[in-house]
Amino acid sequence: MLTMVRLLALFGACMVLLWLSLKLSTETERIAAIWPLNAIVLALLHRQSPSRWPAILATVFLASATASLTRGMSAYLAFGFAFANQVEIVVCARLLLMAPESVRFDSGRWQIRFFLVAALLGPLCSAFIASLMLAHARPMQDALIAWFLGDSLGMLLFAPALLIFGAAPDMLYRQSTRAQKLIASLGLGLALMLVFAQNSFPLLFIIPPALAWASFNLGLRGAAVGILATAMVAIVATMNGLGPVQLVQGGSGSQFYLLQAFLAFIALTTLPIAAALGQSAINLAETRAANEALKSARQTAEEAQQAALKYAQRYRDLAEYATDIVLRYGPGGVISYASPAIRILGVEPDDVIGTRVADLVLEEDRNSAQITIDALFQPSTDPQAARKEFRARAGDGEVIWLEGNPNIIRDPNGTPKEVVCLYRDVTARRAMEADLDRARVAAEKAAAAKAEFLANMSHELRTPLNSIVGFSQLLRDGRLADPRQQRYVDVIADSSLGLLSVVNDVLDYSSLEAGAVKLEQRPFSILKLANQSIESFRIAAEAKGLALPLKLDESLADRYLGDEGRIRQVLLNLLSNALKFTQSGTVTLSITASESTSAQDRLTFAVIDTGPGVPKHQLGALFDRFEQLDGYLNDRSAGSGLGLAIAKFLVELMQGEITVSSEVGQGSCFQFALDLERAALDAATESAPPSVDRRLRLLVVDDVELNRELVLAMLATSQHQVQTASNGVEALERLQQSHFDLVLMDVRMPVMDGLSATRAIRLNPKLRELPVIAMTAQALPEQIRECERAGMSDYLPKPMTVDALNAMIGKWGGVSGGESEFDEREVLERLRNRFLARCARELDLLRSRHSQSAEAVHDAVHRLAGSARLFGFAGVSAAAMRLDQRIGAAEEPEEADYEALIVALKALIEDPSDAAS
Questions:
Q1: Fewest CB within a 10 Å sphere: which of 96, 192, 407, 690?
Q2: What's the predicted TM-score (pTM) here?
């Protein structure tokens, strides 16, 4: 809201202005010749928001009435004249200031609106009201004309200048320099002085050119100021008896009418002229700007054209020298462009225009190529899915491979219109891929050959070792009467166990490499583990005069969660190595604990010996496979060279690390660290069900009779109830007839093998939890996984020992193991004689094999392959194994293979002692 101070100031200003205006009155009725107040108030309203208009209008109304009253006018006339002026102001404000189009004197259309409203309609409304009030004093027509001329002239002279000063800056049109402003102002001032400073010469004609000059130099605002200045100078001069109007005859009234006419003329002509000049200036500026923009656009276009030509030349150079073929073709594959690289196909680019892409492809691939090209013009085709390879014939006649990489050009509707395709020669890449495929196939064959070799080696070694280890242990435990024979048996038993250790190391390493080893997380006693590991080597240490102390950290927990068996395997390996190379002094096992988290400890296992030590430059190779570091020893120690490599594998598999430190002549220290979670005592107790001394019902399934009898002999004194079966079918029948606690299942058998039999067992809901243990000489990782996939619970590798057999039965049967005590010599002799007697029958069957069934012949070969090695008959074993492998691989055996087996059998029957090895 306006403050009272501002309203009082407005009231005072209006009083002064009204007094000056009334002083110009020529008649007694005080009708002013020029009335500027309404124009000034209109300009003031233009600068204020409509919410302030009522206060301003009320103040002006009171000032107008008060001024009239002070000059002796009656209240009726004073308030009536004030009301007439208010009507004019309100009409002009409503129609001009509140119109949708803002105040724009630079617009001819708005100028016409201003003249119609401010110079005609508003003054006419005010004059009509005033003439009615003066009707008693003078003719209404005279009062109407006089009042209208004064108000209209006031609006024409003062309103434009005041409104323009409050309008937008873009109405100035010109940004004149100071010199231009000075010259224009001086010119107009000089003209006004020449015209109105004298009253002898009628020089009013000088004013319009001067105002036009000011308008040209100063723009619309300059024209408005010029009109206002001319009016004020003319009025002041006329009031003081100067100016050309003094030459008019007829009194002051005629002079003021002439002055009014002159001022109206310059107002009505100068403003349109200024607007026209300004518009022409704008048009000229826009034209110049358009010319500049056009010039800039032309320059940009020329630069773009040069760049396009440059890029086009680059494209032509790229197409000319590129080795890839670029083709552009439409529906059907009709070629519209071909790059020069097409010459590699023995054709020129111009020669293929109008032909089909498929015509360039080898005839065998032409239909496929055309189908691919046609698919590119389907709306939903993905060009990446159309990347295909085709054969084409090069210019030299060679067949090459081309790979197409298409890009689809679509119209505005997304419909495929053309295709630009890049064809690349991928002959070398395909040759490389073919070489890689051949190398991959060769590698797979090599891996398969390796696996087959290991499988055969496992079978070949474990089967004879089964009998050697088993019977030698039985002989040694029987204690022979002849000490020399007893020593021979002990040597055989120890050597067979050493050989078995080597075989186990090789197969364990293969299992680790293949990732077939799985860790078990079970609670175990660290004290029990340490004591068992030490006691395993107590006798060997005492035999060499070595001390074998055990040092345990007092902070060790009672039980930990981990794979006790794998930790024991690593400890036994390290202790065995230390005892092997240490000739005097001590071999110490130390276990310390340090807390790594609140729930687990870091256990450090250290085996420290006083042996010869290892040179520093050879420490890095200790954990490599097949390394024994014999350069500094007198002789090479027996072993596979895999023990430490297996230990490293196992430690890293358990997320630990193993290290070694050694000094030549001072001994060595092998240690490994594991993070193990502490286990509660009750959890450990619950997880290990107690072994009880009870008798089980066992089913032994093996197609080789001697193998079955060997297992029976090992279990002879265990008091377990044992039944046997010769194949999977018989085993299933036994399981249907009776209840069994455990099944020992051979894998390779005729009629139904162990894997198929196990799968059938698992399909029976009643037998789903029955433990089935694989007895096999094939203990490679993939063979073990195959047993697991078939549903077997565990595996017992051949050759078996009595301890291993009892341990497996105890593990899955929950019983304590027993000892085998019987006359092994009698068993061995009986089994050997039975085998030789059977060999005679098998020889007759093989000689008449053409009249026998293939199944009977195959069974005989398999029995010989599995039994001959038990007694060391290498010739018969090798010949039978060769035939058995061919039959198992679905290959047709050759007659020479049968003859080799027949010759070996004949030699064995004639002289068993010469055939044994």
A1: 690
A2: 0.35
